[in-house]
Design brief:
Blueprint lengths: L8 H9 L7 H9 L6 E2 L5 E2 L2 H17 L3 H17 L23 H8 L3 H9 L16 H14 L9 H22 L4 H34 L1
Antiparallel strand pairs: 1-2
Length: 230
């Protein structure tokens, strides 16, 4: 019998676990559902991860861990790299970090599933919810978390590595609420027009203001910390 030249999902998990301790089978399946990886299937439906699939998965995990790029940006970067491999073209990725974290669409996860996907303990997730940083949805007994919750948890996980507790993060929710109130006040006149073009303009304005806000906060934080960053 010829040697098998691919790995199962369980074998991939084991091979990456040392480098990425938080990797889980649920997360690998989630990345596949989001279209970032596309392993072949056996006639029985089992996933077949060839060397290129594993390398691609490792690159995705590195970008999430080291750069915290949103999945949309990661997907765009991978597409650009593939295009460069074909015709040598492709744009700069310098501006990618300024993109807003875009929530995965259609994501529905229970508390345990979200814990497996993010590597955050269920108790921590529940505590974050008590402080209003995430919010479960659905009728009682069938509550779930969505893509926005996944993005928040992916970010706050980095804080946890430094001993930051959920209660310390309340200031971000409070600041976001004040900022959202300001932005809504600005675009509300456009939304009241009930005109499709006006609504598109309102959406564009919100995106522009959100990007400007992110840059301003980065600059102000750098000013506050510059004596330690020099």
């Amino acid at each position: 019998m010829p040697a098998r030249n691919y790995q199962s999902i369980g074998e991939v998990l084991v091979s990456l676990k040392t480098e990425f301790p938080d990797i889980t089978i649920s997360k690998i399946r989630f990345l596949e559902a989001e279209g970032l990886i596309a392993p072949e299937r056996t006639p029985s439906g089992y996933r077949k991860f060839f060397e290129g699939d594993v390398d691609r998965l490792r690159s995705i995990l590195k970008m999430q861990r080291d750069e915290y790029l949103p999945l949309k940006v990661i997907k765009d970067r991978l597409l650009r790299e593939e295009k460069q491999g074909v015709d040598g073209t492709g744009g700069s990725v310098i501006e990618e970090i300024e993109e807003l974290a875009e929530a995965p669409t259609g994501l529905v996860m229970s508390l345990d599933e979200m814990s497996s996907a993010t590597g955050i303990e269920p108790e921590k997730i529940t505590e974050l919810e008590s402080y209003g940083l995430i919010s479960s949805h659905g009728p009682e007994g069938a509550e779930y978390y969505d893509g926005d919750d996944y993005v928040v948890l992916s970010v706050v996980k980095d804080f946890f590595r430094y001993g930051v507790e959920p209660r310390h993060l309340r200031m971000y929710r409070q600041a976001a609420e004040r900022e959202a109130d300001l932005f809504k006040m600005i675009v509300l006149p456009m939304l009241r027009q009930r005109n499709p073009d006006a609504r598109r303009a309102a959406t564009d304005s919100l995106q522009d203001m959100a990007r400007a806000s992110r840059k301003l906060k980065q600059a102000l934080l750098r000013i506050q910390l510059r004596e330690y960053l020099s």
